[in-house]
Structures are given as structure tokens and as C-alpha cells.
Design goal:
This protein is of the alpha+beta class. 25% of the residues lie in helices and 30% in strands. Helix 7 crosses helix 10. 44% of the residues are buried.
Length: 858
């Protein structure tokens, strides 16, 4: 009988358990990322495999590194003292039992000489170290192109003689003027004057025009932000960069210690606000863009129709030069050819597929670059895992459903920020765990990582990352005097092989249809995390009684529902009650009672329930009956016209209920609920994207925001001197004199958010009463509810103003977003629940309503 080593048994156990531990999605054994690494001048081969729990098996043994990120001084300085410094650091690592190192070049790896890199590799091999190779800044050539953001660069003020725009990074800027009162007829175009970062044009020639509106399209150069996020000129630089990189690495002989490559093209190829709407102007872009259009459309005529052009073109080469003068539904209905200066009318911009085509081309070409560099590294240099770092901004570059690179994903972390499944970590976790095949998941230090104050801080953060599903960590911010911290942390985190199997218990929600979900601990069960997933889903909106979503996971469809009003027994209409199943967020089964040929009955507590086998969207029958009850309670207080319409809609719903058409009944009565709520609600809910006046950047669309959009300020530019500040003003009416509490949902205060003040009418501006968000954060943790304060208001009309005068302290950007505002009587307590509105009833009426619909008393 063949004996198995202890490590072999651990590796076998790791592979077997990783498919069933936690809330992992099942993966067939033949669908894992694998490879075989053959070190230089060695007959030994090492196999590797990424398991279902997002861990890396190296030669059938779990590889869970706890090491350091090391920036060699000798990569930048060729002096003997620089090399001696690097050697001393490696000796210190070995002396402290630290065996895992992530090499992070100070600049781009392609700038390192082969001899310097080989010397370092040999030194690490001689000391028995395992190492990953980072590629530093990677691609560095900034992307240059035309910025098409009408929300930012539109000028509409007929009382001024000069149009002004802040454009600090512009090389040039084209302007266009239309008559908004004459079907956006183009009445002027040219190149704007740029002086000290301000672009300007004279409007004197257009004073005879009914309504002149100007648009600027600046030619900008993008740079990475403070976090290293940016989009370099991948299209113009990729071929030369790849050749230089492979030329360097093929001269290096890697030994048995090599474990992975990190970010071959550079860290975090993400889309800033500017990058999303930048049309590159390089010749390589036009060649690639034209090639894409040729493959997709074949001939200019087909493209003319799809882009809604009113003029025919003879070649795709001409059409590839065109730049739209609109985006996100705003702007002018024209294309602009910067080569000729000509403009071409578009019949219906909202139907034009230009932006869809451009986005698809960009995603395809970026995926091609990432795949090509990974494939060639593994083919010509070393077949080890290729890992990418990133977050929300770069998820579109990674495919979920095939075996293409990367083999692993890395989240950046910092001593200054406690790790949690939010922002970048949650999307990366879901992408790694839901990928087919799964991907390795590790943590690497952020560019501006800071330092650890104590061993407790270090091990606490790494333990939190491990609990969140990460299977390896590389840190900075630990001095030579405290290398024992890492040694002790490695022992604490890897002393048990079962620890390497740990995966968080998660409840996935569709990123584009979150409903009541938010990134963080699930209310009522803090052992489970709600995590956004890059998969299809639909919102199940049954306000004011239920909220939820249906998500399409690789394992099948799940519906998650929350009772907004409290614990109760609920009946759900489903296609086949016999296959319906219900679970709590942690997977425990919930009893189901079949009460009809298409009805099940289940008890909702104060936690979401997960349903399978219930079709695309189960229908809670109480959603319709609750709405009818609510309308009945509101009707006596409505105006004559509102009462007549509400009664008609309620009666129609009651008729449909008698026919057991629950969906039809709810659909019929929902308009009455909305209409009466708007007229009679004791609180005032204002959508942030609907100000009476503002000079913010734009209205941003996002399915996870209230109303599907929010008002966003995001710019490095200072307000124009004639304005002095960024501001948004909202008007509203209160029906009775009294004290009111003022709330704002938007970006939470912090070093990356601009400070703001608020005031009503002509009162002095004041900061918010509390800077700490109340209730759960949402939109990946970026948004939350802030209590602004209390105001005494008289009956009648008022204006609420939000002012931003300074940039964020950390980023130096003017950054602030407003999703919603709530003005409520101080006698009516408000409990924030992401974007879910309260029931439109007075506090004194709520007990009767809840008792009538059968909600259990607290």
C-alpha cells in the first residue's frame, strides 16, 4: 500500500473540502485552472491548480503565502551599496522565517536590466524564498483623446457674452454652438482659446439667436490617480511594451521559487470618469476601431443606419474618425470629424449604437491585451498563475464564464483602512468565486499603504482578510525591526490546513439590481455577507411591503425577498409549489406550506429569505392586498380628483384579486399608492438628480441609486471665479408649520469626499449635524444616509441648498454625490434603509395599518 505524506494528505483534503465549505458554488472537477511550471535548468516540474475555494495548490499542497512586498533598491541604483542593502533585507527575511516575497519594481519592470533582475532572482533562490513578480507601473504612456461629457462641458447661459470652462489638462479644445430653440441647429464651431487652464469662446456673434447653447470637446491627456487607477494608451503602446517585456524576461532564468506574475500591464487598468467618455485620437486606435467596425458591420451602409447618420459615407475609415457630440442622453445630435472639422447630423441620438459599439470594442481590445500578455508569459517565460489587481472600475476587463486570464485576482489593502467586503474587495471576491473555473484570491498592498502600529493591528487585518476569503497576503509598512510580526502572523494564520479552506458565507445580489441589498453584513444574520455579483438579475419591487431581487447564478436562479414591514406569514404565487424551497441567508431550510395549486405559505422573520424553484419572480399575494389597504386608508384625505382616480384603481385591483390575479392587482393599484403618497405623505422625498438649480458635473445613471440615478460632482477643476463654489438647490413645500429633520443620502464623509455645508432658504450655511452615516451603506459602500440637522419651517415653499467649496483632502478632487433628500416632521422617526422609502403614513396611523395587514406585533 502506497504511503501518502502529511502534505499530500493535506492537499487532497484541501481539494475535496474546498468544493463544499461555506456558500461556494459547485464546480466540476474538470474545470479548474491548472498549469505546469518547469524551472530553468531543472528536470523537476511543479503543477499548480486553483481550487473551488479560491486557493492555490502548488504540487498538490495549499500555498497560502504570508509575506512582504519588496521594492529592490538595486533596480533603480546600480551602486554596490544598493545591492548590499537588498541582500541585507533578503537575509533578514530568511532569518525571521519569512519565505514569501512579492517583488514590486519602483517603476516599470521593463526598465530593469536583465542582469539586475537575474542577480535578484539568484539571490532569492539561494535563500529558498518563494516569490511573485510584480511589473510596476507597466504601460506608462498616458492616454490622449477627446473628452465627450456634455454634462460637464455644456454652457447654457444666454445672459453672458463669454462661455468659460475649466480645462487644466487640455492640449486643445473644439467648441460647438447650437440654437436649442431651433431643433439644435448648429450655428457655430471652431477651436476655443485656452489660457491658464480656462477655455473660452465669445458668444457675441450668437446674440441674435433665440437660445444659443455651447459645448466644449477638449483634447485631454489622462494620468493615473492617487490610487494608481488609470487607463494608459493600451492601443498605442501595447505591441512595443509586450516585445520589450518578453525580451527582458526571456533572458532571465527563473528557479523553483517562482510562484506567480502580478499585473503584467500595470496595476488597476480602470476607468475613471474621464476615461469612460474619452475617444482616443491615436492612429493605432483608429486602425483598431476601423477593424472592429469592419468585422461587425462589413460595409458603411449598415453602419450608417445603426449610427443614425443622415449622410452616407464611402468608407469605414472615414466613419472611424467620427466622434459623437453626445453621451448619456445629453449633448448635440451631431458627429464631429476632427481631421476635417466637419460635422454630420444624427437623426435620433438615443437610437444610435455608437457608444454601445465603442464600449464593446474597448472591452474586447482590453481583454485581448490582458489575455495576450498572460498567454505569452506562460508560453515563453514561465507557466505560473497570472494575477490581476483591480476593483469595480476594471471588472469589465475580466470574463466570468471562460478559462481566459487571469488565474487570480488581487485586492489592495492598507493599514489605514479596515478590510471589509465592500468597494473593491466584494466585487473581486464574487468574481473570483463565481468564475468558471474559479480564480485564486490574494491581498496585496495599496500604492499608498502606510504602516502598521503594532503586531495586533497587522495580524488583525490579515485575519479579517482571511475570513473574507483571501488565500494569501503580501504586506508593506513593517520595518526591519518588526519583521517578527510577519513571522508570527504567518504562524497564526497558517497553523491549520483547515484555515486555508475558509470561505465567507455570502448572499449574492445582482450589481445592477440590488433592491434592498447592500454590500456588508446581512441584517438579522451578521455571519453572512451580502456581496454584489457581476451576473444578470432583476429587481422585485413590491413597495411598500416587500423588496427583493432574482439573481441568475451559475448554480441556477435564486429569489431573495425582504419583508419591509416586519415579521408575518406570506403567501407566494409560484409555478410549482412542490419544487419550491426556502432558506435563511446561512442556508438553513425554512418550512413551506402548500396552500393551493400555485400557492405556498412561508413565515418571514427579520431576515431575508432565499427561494429556489419558484420561477423568475414569485408574487407575494400580500403585496397587492397591502397596497389596497394602504390606498383605502389614504383616500379619505385625498383631493376630490385624486380620490376619484384612486378609488377607480383600487376597485380594479380588488376585482383582479377576486380572480386571483395577484400580479395584475398589484400593477393596477401601484399608481394609486404612488400618487396618493406624493400628495399626502407626511415626509418629503426628493430625488438628488432633480435639483431646481445646480452646477454639479452630471446626472449619473445607476440602478442601485434611488430612482436609478443621482447627482454627481466629480472634477479636479475649481469652480469658476464668478461662482466660487459648487452648489445644488432643491425646492419643496411643507403643509404645516413645525420642526423638521433633514436627511441626505449620498457619498459618505471622509478624506476622499469633499466637505459640504447646507442651509434652508437664507439661513447661514452649516455642516451636517453628524458625519457618521446612519443605517447601512449602499452602492458598494460609497453612499449612506447623513443626518443634516433640524429646522423650523413655516407652511409653504422653501429651498434646501447643498454647497461644496473645497476639494477632498486626500484626492484634491471636488467629489460629492446626492442620491436623495428627506424632509420629515421631527415627530416621525426615520430609519434609513438604503433607497427604500418609508410607508407614507403618520406615526399614529401605522399601528392600525400593520394590524390590518397581519404584521406581527413587536
Amino acid at each position: 500500500m502506497q504511503k501518502l505524506s502529511l502534505l499530500g494528505v493535506i492537499g487532497f483534503l484541501f481539494l475535496q473540502l474546498s468544493c463544499s465549505y461555506g456558500h461556494a458554488q459547485a464546480v466540476s472537477s474538470d474545470r479548474f485552472r491548472t498549469g505546469t511550471f518547469r524551472p530553468a535548468a531543472s528536470s523537476t516540474a511543479f503543477t499548480w491548480q486553483v481550487t473551488a475555494s479560491n486557493a492555490l495548490n502548488w504540487n498538490h499542497v495549499p500555498y497560502v503565502p504570508v509575506g512582504v512586498a519588496f521594492t529592490p533598491v538595486s533596480f533603480k541604483e546600480g551602486s554596490p551599496s544598493a545591492w548590499h542593502s537588498d541582500e541585507a533585507y533578503l537575509d533578514a527575511l530568511k532569518a525571521h522565517g519569512i519565505t514569501d516575497v512579492l517583488i514590486t519594481p519602483p517603476d516599470s519592470l521593463v526598465d530593469v536590466s536583465p542582469s539586475a533582475l537575474q542577480r535578484l532572482i539568484d539571490a532569492m533562490e539561494a535563500r529558498g524564498l518563494h516569490y511573485g513578480i510584480g511589473f510596476g507601473r507597466g504601460l506608462e504612456q498616458p492616454l490622449t483623446g477627446f473628452e465627450v461629457r456634455p454634462a460637464v462641458y455644456r454652457f447654457d447661459d444666454p445672459n453672458r457674452n463669454v462661455a468659460l470652462w475649466q480645462v487644466s489638462d487640455a492640449e486643445a479644445a473644439a467648441y460647438f454652438v447650437v440654437d436649442a430653440a431651433a431643433d439644435s441647429r448648429l450655428i457655430g464651431a471652431g477651436m476655443a482659446t485656452i489660457n491658464r487652464g480656462v477655455a473660452s469662446i465669445s458668444l457675441d456673434d450668437f446674440h441674435g439667436t433665440a437660445h444659443p447653447v455651447a459645448l466644449l470637446v477638449p483634447l485631454l491627456k489622462l494620468h493615473r490617480d492617487a490610487d494608481g487607477v488609470g487607463l494608459p494608451d493600451v492601443w498605442g503602446e501595447f505591441d512595443a511594451y509586450r516585445d520589450r517585456l518578453l525580451g527582458l524576461l526571456r533572458q532571465v532564468r527563473f528557479g523553483a521559487g517562482l510562484r506567480f506574475f502580478l499585473d503584467p500591464l500595470g496595476p488597476t487598468l480602470g476607468f475613471s470618469d474621464e476615461a469612460l467618455f474619452m475617444v482616443p485620437n491615436s492612429e493605432m486606435f483608429r486602425i483598431s476601431w476601423e477593424s472592429y467596425l469592419s468585422r461587425k458591420y462589413g460595409a458603411p451602409d449598415a453602419l450608417t443606419t445603426k449610427w443614425q447618420l443622415s449622410k452616407s459615407f464611402s468608407s469605414l475609415r472615414e466613419m472611424a474618425r467620427l466622434i459623437p457630440l453626445w453621451s448619456l442622453g445629453r449633448g448635440f445630435p451631431y458627429f464631429y470629424d476632427p481631421t476635417t472639422g466637419n460635422t454630420y447630423r444624427v437623426t435620433q441620438p438615443t437610437l444610435s449604437t455608437w457608444w454601445d459599439d465603442f464600449s464593446d470594442w474597448r472591452t474586447q481590445t482590453l481583454r485581448y491585451a490582458l489575455k495576450t500578455i498572460a498567454d505569452e508569459l506562460q508560453r515563453y517565460v514561465a507557466d505560473v498563475p497570472v494575477v490581476y489587481s483591480g476593483g469595480l472600475q476594471s471588472l469589465s476587463n475580466v470574463s466570468l464564464d471562460d478559462s481566459s486570464p487571469p488565474d487570480g485576482l488581487a485586492a489592495t489593502f492598507s493599514p489605514a483602512v479596515p478590510p471589509s467586503l465592500n468597494r473593491s474587495m466584494a466585487p473581486l471576491y464574487s468574481l473570483a468565486s463565481l468564475s468558471r473555473p474559479p480564480r485564486w484570491l490574494i491581498g496585496v498592498p495599496a500604492i499608498t499603504a502606510g504602516s502598521y502600529a503594532s503586531y495586533t493591528d497587522l495580524v488583525g487585518q490579515l485575519a479579517s482578510l482571511q475570513n473574507l476569503g483571501f488565500k494569501g497576503f503580501f504586506v508593506t509598512g513593517v520595518t526591519l525591526d518588526h519583521l517578527d510580526w510577519i513571522e508570527r502572523a504567518a504562524q497564526a494564520l497558517t497553523d491549520s490546513p483547515i484555515a486555508a479552506l475558509r470561505t465567507p458565507r455570502v448572499l449574492y445580489y445582482p450589481f445592477q439590481a440590488p433592491g434592498p441589498a447592500f454590500t456588508g453584513q446581512v441584517p438579522g444574520d451578521e455571519s453572512v455577507f451580502w456581496v454584489p455579483a457581476p451576473v444578470q438579475g432583476i429587481l422585485d419591487d413590491w413597495w411598500p411591503s416587500f423588496s427583493g431581487y432574482t439573481i441568475h447564478l451559475p448554480s441556477g436562479a435564486e429569489t431573495v425577498l425582504v419583508s419591509l414591514l416586519g415579521p408575518r406569514v406570506v403567501r407566494l404565487q409560484v409555478p410549482d409549489p412542490h419544487v419550491a424551497r426556502a432558506f435563511t441567508p446561512d442556508g438553513a431550510p425554512v418550512p413551506i406550506k402548500i396552500v393551493g395549486k400555485d400557492l405556498i405559505e412561508v413565515h418571514f422573520a427579520n431576515v431575508p429569505l432565499v427561494f429556489t424553484g419558484v420561477g423568475e419572480s414569485p408574487i407575494p399575494t400580500e403585496a397587492a392586498t397591502d397596497a389596497v389597504t394602504l390606498v383605502t386608508m389614504l383616500l379619505p384625505h385625498a383631493s376630490k380628483a385624486d380620490r376619484a382616480l384612486g378609488e377607480l384603481q383600487r376597485d380594479q385591483a380588488q376585482m383582479l384579486l377576486r380572480r386571483k390575479d395577484y400580479l395584475g392587482a398589484y400593477t393596477a393599484v401601484r399608481p394609486a399608492v404612488e400618487g396618493l403618497a406624493a400628495a399626502l405623505s407626511p415626509y418629503i422625498w426628493i430625488e438628488g438628480e432633480n435639483p431646481a438649480l445646480d452646477n454639479f458635473t452630471e446626472t449619473a445613471q445607476n440602478a442601485g441609486a434611488s430612482g436609478g440615478a443621482y447627482l454627481r460632482l466629480s472634477t479636479p477643476e475649481e469652480p469658476l471665479q464668478i461662482i466660487h463654489e459648487y452648489a445644488a438647490r432643491y425646492t419643496f413645500d411643507v403643509s404645516a408649520t413645525g420642526d423638521y429633520d433633514i436627511w441626505l443620502a449620498g457619498t459618505v464623509p471622509g478624506p476622499q469626499t469633499s466637505p459640504f455645508t447646507w442651509y434652508i432658504d437664507h439661513q447661514p450655511p452649516q455642516p451636517p449635524a453628524t458625519a457618521t452615516p446612519v443605517g447601512p451603506r449602499y452602492l458598494s459602500g460609497y453612499f449612506g444616509w447623513i443626518y443634516l440637522g433640524r429646522a423650523s419651517l413655516s407652511q409653504g415653499s422653501h429651498a434646501l441648498s447643498i454647497k461644496i467649496a473645497d476639494p477632498a483632502s486626500e484626492t484634491k478632487l471636488y467629489t460629492f454625490s446626492i442620491d436623495a433628500l428627506l424632509i420629515t416632521p421631527s415627530s416621525l422617526p426615520f430609519t434609513p434603509r438604503t433607497t427604500i422609502r418609508p410607508v407614507p403614513l403618520l406615526a399614529s396611523d401605522m399601528p392600525k395599518f400593520l394590524k390590518t395587514i397581519g404584521v406581527e406585533a413587536k
